[in-house]
Design goal:
Layout (H helix, E strand, L loop, with lengths): L8 H18 L1 H10 L23 E5 L2 E4 L4 E4 L14 H11 L11 H13 L3 E5 L2 H16 L3 E5 L12 E3 L5 E3 L14 E4 L4 H8 L4 E6 L15 H11 L3 E5 L10 H5 L6 E5 L9 E5 L1 H10 L18 H14 L2 H25 L4 E5 L2 E5 L8 H6 L3 H13 L2 E2 L6 E3 L6 H18 L4
Parallel strand pairs: 3-15, 5-8, 5-9, 9-10, 10-11
Antiparallel strand pairs: 1-2, 2-3, 4-12, 6-7, 11-12, 13-14, 14-16
The chain binds 4'-deoxy-4'-aminopyridoxal-5'-phosphate.
4'-deoxy-4'-aminopyridoxal-5'-phosphate (PMP) binds next to helix 5.
């Protein structure tokens, strides 16, 4: 990384040590719980990547409501992470809680449909323009199922993904491009079933020629696309990119899957609706259940027809698609309430200007110290990145990353009661986020950068 304003690494290390001390001092209860947790939770956490949060133990949550949470040490936090989109509609939104409580008392899961399934699929069809829907418990599973169907329908084995994409723990997606432009396993890919080059072609985001070369191999079942990359910072599509992807998918007989799990931040119908895209499948999870586990994939009438004609009823339960709890009554009630009453255009009309205000505040902080960084926004989500220009693809975004610096910035924010999305520098707005929450971040960020870069 090159800095216009020089970044003094020893100063960064000293400041980081100071912040670690402050973190420990302010959170004795979290520290004690983390210690206790280590007895049966490796690293003291229920999921391994939670050890990657800044600080030397995770913050244990007491309760969360709206855009805030309170930790077990009684500290109130502005939550700009929002469960990495799982709580994009705010923690425990009222209509969702009400519907879930009612359903809890009426049966949680039966392996039979409830009437809510009709309302949810109707609502999803209107939002995203795809007529048919099936349900899972996670976006990961929805992606897996869409890929399986694509393989089944095309008789081909490979999936195209973008370099440095993230679509959940989907085997085919843990691939990257090596220096020679070949598809290879992503660093620290844990226990891949086969070498990802057997299942996957990786192409750069915004690289139409690269995509065409991959498709020309004739073995591509599906192109799995996040309409803007959001898991390696935000990388926006260039004008015409999605139209080219659609055209190439059609001309090469590959099925196009739009994963809107994060890009739903662009509006009630995600980027797909905002930019009038026409995928064969659409995947979404996390936020549409207001935090209750859910996932879904939608598809065209043509896909539905091809599936109906080629899948035998007798083996439907063991064909690799499904899940015992998928489509359960509780998830359905949560999705119905969240979609109909919480994730509305009005909500986005509140969230998107706040994300713009957040981005403006961050940009002002960056400008005041002349750091060669920039801010990117997609609807209700915004992110700063340690490069002067917006990255054009995942590789550029990845190469601009600075783990040490990032951990410091997150810890500094956390010590002042602000939680950013971990693993990059992202903020998400919810219907409950206020202008005061955003301004608190702006003030904190400005002070942080002035100290880091030794500016008065
Ligand atoms: N798709 C995208 C674009 C995601 O960002 C994620 C998770 N961050 C997933 C799918 C997987 O979601 P889950 O972990 O809930 O299965």
């Amino acid at each position: 990384m090159t800095d216009h304003a020089p970044l003094d690494r020893s100063r960064l290390a000293a400041l980081h040590a100071r912040e670690l001390g402050a973190f420990r001092a302010a959170r004795p209860r979290s520290a004690a719980l983390a210690e206790q947790a280590r007895a049966h939770l490796p690293g003291g956490v229920p999921m391994s990547w939670m050890v990657k949060w800044p600080g030397d133990f995770p913050v244990f949550v007491d309760r969360a409501q709206g855009a805030h949470f309170t930790c077990v040490d009684g500290i109130d936090h502005i939550d700009l992470c929002l469960g990495d989109t799982g709580a994009m509609m705010g923690h425990s939104p009222g209509p969702t809680v009400e519907a879930v409580l009612a359903q809890l008392a009426r049966g949680i899961t039966t392996m039979l449909p409830t009437e809510d399934a009709i309302a949810v699929s109707t609502e999803l069809s209107e939002r995203f323009g795809l007529p048919y829907w099936q349900f899972t418990l996670t976006a990961t599973d929805a992606n897996r199922h869409a890929i399986r169907y694509a393989r089944h329908l095309t008789g081909r084995r490979k999936v195209v993904v973008h370099d440095y994409c993230y679509h959940g723990s989907v085997d085919e997606t843990f691939a990257t491009l090596d220096a020679a432009g070949r598809t290879t396993s992503r660093r620290n890919n844990i226990g891949p079933p086969v070498d990802p080059s057997e299942t996957t072609h990786v192409v750069e985001f915004n690289d139409v020629d690269g995509l065409e070369r991959a498709l020309a191999e004739g073995d591509v079942a599906a192109i799995l696309v996040e309409p803007a990359l959001t898991n390696i910072g935000i990388v926006l599509p260039h004008a015409g990119y999605h139209a080219a992807v659609r055209e190439l998918a059609t001309s090469h007989g590959a099925l196009l899957i739009n994963d809107e799990t994060h890009t739903i931040c662009a509006g009630p119908g995600g980027v797909t609706r905002a930019e009038d895209l026409h995928p064969d499948f659409l995947v979404i999870g996390k936020s549409i259940g207001g935090g209750i586990p859910c996932g879904t994939f939608g598809f065209t009438a043509e896909v539905a027809d091809r599936i109906a004609r080629s899948v035998d009823l007798e083996d439907i339960d063991v064909g690799g698609i499904g899940g015992t709890l998928a489509g359960n009554g509780l998830s359905m009630a949560a999705m119905r309430a969240t979609l109909e009453q919480v994730m509305t255009q009005d909500a986005f009309d509140h969230m998107v200007p706040l994300a713009q205000a957040w981005a403006d505040g961050v940009q002002a902080g960056i400008d005041s110290v002349a750091a060669p960084w920039h801010v990117t926004r997609l609807g209700a989500r915004a992110e700063y990145n340690f490069s002067a220009e917006p990255p054009r693809n995942g590789r550029e975004a990845h190469d601009a990353d600075d783990f040490e610096l990032q951990q410091y910035l997150h810890l500094y924010a956390l010590n002042r009661g602000i939680l950013l999305t971990p693993f990059h520098n992202m903020a998400l707005m919810s219907p409950s986020t206020t202008r005061g929450d955003v301004d608190a971040h702006t003030v904190m960020f400005d002070e942080c950068l002035r100290e880091l870069f030794s500016r008065p």
